[in-house]
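User: For a teaching handout, I'd like to show students what a predicted protein-ligand complex looks like in token form. I'll give you the sequence and the SMILES for zinc ion. Please answer with just the structure.
Assistant: Understood, here is the input followed by the structure.
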Amino acid sequence: MDTCLKCEAASDADTRWEVILETQMCIWESPTSMPEVDIQFGDGIGTYCSEEHAMVAVNEYLLLVGADAQWSDVRPIETCACCHKDFDTTTSWHKVLTLIEESGEPPDLSIGTVEYVARFCQKCVP
Ligand SMILES: [Zn+2]
Ligand SMILES: [Zn+2]
């Protein structure tokens, strides 16, 4: 059972939303191959009972660091959520604010939707 950081409701519901600041590097073997994401580590920001409460936390975090949600994808060049400059995601580790829908417990943990709220270039490490 997880307790929502926002409403402090302990929920028996299996599905919860995690907000994580991940350190990622995107990998493109070739221009035609599928992109891969290499995740070095993630700092958990919180676990929430609903996507709505997770988004309240996401928006508070973005406000704190002075960034906008970009809902970015995995591309070789992405726009930084802070300085709005394009940067290369394949050459160095960068921070990504990630929203993950999860259910179950290991070893039956299942990951639902994964969304990248914002990517931050190396100069704007939040
Ligand atoms: Zn909640
Ligand atoms: Zn930046």
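For the handout, you might add this sentence: Helices lie at 51-65.
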